[in-house]
Amino acid sequence: MRHGQFIDRPPCEQAHSFEVATCSDPTCGLHLIAKRSNDAPICEVVIGRPQLRQLLGYIHDEGLDLL
Ligand SMILES: [Zn+2]
């Protein structure tokens, strides 16, 4: 993860909303399902547990968990 750097947003479809879920595999991580405005899924991203810890650190370091 790139701390303190801004990205150019990729030229791809942008999600209108997303769903967060877990599956029945206790060793799995977090499932994010990007959705269109009509609720149709675009793609699924599964974030493994080590990546989740990195993500939480990134959110905290960037102050994204502050109001
Ligand atoms: Zn899973």
Structure notes:
With 67 residues, the chain is of the alpha+beta class. It has a domain at 17-61. 19% of the residues lie in helices and 27% in strands. It has one helix at 49-61; strands at residues 17-21, 30-35, 41-47. It has a three-stranded antiparallel beta sheet with strand order 1-2-3. β1 and β2 form a beta hairpin. The longest helix is centred in the C-terminal third of the chain and has 13 residues, at 49-61. The chain is globular. The relative contact order is 0.19. The mean pLDDT is 94. The structure holds zinc ion. Zinc ion is lined by residues 23, 25, 28, 31, 46.
Please describe the biggest sheet, giving its number of strands, its sense, and whether it closes into a barrel.
3 strands, antiparallel
The share of residues in extended strands comes to: 25-35%
* Cα Rg: 14 Å
SS-derived structural category: alpha+beta
Bound molecules: zinc ion
Question: How many DSSP E strands?
Answer: 3
Summary tags:
67 residues, alpha+beta, 3-stranded antiparallel beta sheet, 3 strands, 19% helix, 27% strand, binds zinc ion
Summarize the structure.
The protein has 67 residues and is of the alpha+beta class. The chain has a domain at 17-61. It is 19% helix and 27% strand.
Strands, helices and their partners?
Layout lengths: L16 E5 L8 E6 L5 E7 L1 H13 L6
Antiparallel strand pairs: 1-2, 2-3
This protein binds zinc ion.
